[in-house]
Amino acid sequence: MLRELPLTPGEKLQPGEIPDGMLVAQPASGRPRPRPSRRGEWPDLDELEKGPAPLWRRPWFVIMFVTVMLGIGWILGHSQAPDNDVHATPMTRLLRTVGFGGARFTASIDTDPPGAWIAIDGKDLGRRTPSTLELLPGDHALTLSMPDLGEVKVDLKGKRGQKVKVNEVLHGSLDVVASDPSLPVQMSLDGAPQGYLPVHVAKLPPGLHELQFNGPKMQPWAQQVNIGIRKNTKVVSKPMMSPATGVVQVLAQMNDENGSAPLPGASVYVDGVLGGTTPATIELPRGPHSLRVQFEGVVAPIQVIDLPGGNKRFATFQFGLDSDLPPLKLEAGTQKLLAKDPAVVSASLDGLEADDLREAWLHVLTPDGLWSRFPMTINAGDRGAVLTVSFPVSQFGGEAKATWYLSAATKQGDEFFTEVQHSTR
Q: Among residues 169, 198, 216, which one ends one of the domains?
């Protein structure tokens, strides 16, 4: 036990004098040994303010989080997105995503034409052809249908992992005959000429189609027909016979600063022949006719009226108005048109640029009694637009007479006509 020895006041220890019982620290031999630290280093002030890094800022956590989210998204996307598995349930979709889900075979289903509704084993899938399906191995009943047009049933069979292709033709056919075989009736199907009746169309897409008919001394008519899937449809055409003549009433008006007033006494030419004076009521054969009205040397623009049988049409001609529209003027030399080789018809519109025209046509009454039209070529001439076309002489065979006229229309809607012409050999 150590005890403290008190010193009296003023008492000092002499060098080398050590009282009994006092412990004196002596220096260790060799290099002094440092004292070990009892506490860690103090952290920087910035670290004390920030505190420990949050979990989401640690790299390993970010990598793990991104990986998990991508995996969940991939599984959900593949299990919920529409697929081709007809017999799939949400659970089987999920299982198939990770590699489990049962055996299937693939069926590629198509039709000609496409668009048929698909049903498997009596269940409507809400899909149309073409489509690819995944089915359980075995036998299945495939139904391809179109509303109100019928259906086709096909046996479908496949093994595990097999790829099966189905391509069914759904076209129907059409037979059209005339109620009177002695009448030459022409037919067009959806605007495409098919020739004279009877007509057989072997391959026709299911659905609604339009038939157009025309013939000599007949008013053109049309009717619609529904073609069923793999069904043959028969149609009997019944011509709409109309009276052979119609009536046209021709009037003329004089226009001045005081207004308009009826103009009597103007000469009326029908198909180039004088037919009376205004006002005139003229009975004419059914079909197109040109009307030209002239008064005191002034000619109003020519009109062409397609007159239906049994009906009445009106044609009014204006005088006293300044018009900058030129007449459609025929070139000379069309009298013996059928005797020419080649037979070319030319016309001009002086003062009107070729770019102003939208279309121009040659209208010809063919030997079978039908009017046909042929497009004209529009070129720029020295004085205006020049129209040319080759006359279809070959269609007339031994016929000695041809009836025809020309028409043209501008992009602004103005129309021009020539009188009806009669050419011979």
A: 169
- Domain final residue pick, 271, 287, 319: 319
Strands 245-256 and 303-307: what pairing? unpaired
CA distance 209 to 348: 41
pLDDT (0 to 100) of residue 261: 94
265: left (phi over 0), alpha (psi -120 to 50) or beta: left
Question: Has residue 334 been placed in a domain?
Answer: yes
CA nearest neighbour of 372 among 209, 248, 198, 193: 193
- Which carries the bigger pLDDT value, residue 8 or residue 411? 411
Q: What CATH number corresponds to the domain at position 109?
A: 2.60.40.10
Q: Give all strands (DSSP E) within 257-286, no chain letters.
A: 259-262, 267-270, 273-277, 280-285
SS3 state at 186 = strand
CA atoms of 389 and 375, how far apart (whole Å)? 7
Q: pLDDT tens digits for 390-410?
A: 999 988 877 889 999 999 999
Domain that holds residue 95: 90-169
- Token digits of residue 34: 């440092």
Distance, in Å, from the CA atom of 174 to the CA atom of 72, rounded to the nearest integer, reads: 57
Q: Percent helix, strand and coil across the chain, each rounded to 5?
A: 10, 45, 40
Evaluate whether 222 touches 212 at the Cβ level (below 8 Å): yes
Whether residues 397 and 355 fall in one domain: yes
Number of C-beta neighbours around residue 345 at 10 A: 24
CA proximity to 247, closest of 166, 310, 317:
310
Report the C-alpha gap between 331 and 340 in whole angstroms: 15
- The answer to whether residue 79 sits within a structural domain is no
Q: Identify whether 46 is part of a domain.
A: no
Whether residue 244 is predicted with pLDDT greater than 70 in this model: the reply is: yes
Whether 135 maps to a domain, the answer reads yes
The pTM (predicted TM-score) of the whole model is 0.50
Name which of 70, 107, 68, 66 is nearest 86 in CA terms: 107
362-383 residue pLDDT tens: 999 988 777 889 999 999 999 9
pLDDT band at 417 (very low <50, low <70, confident <90, very high): very high
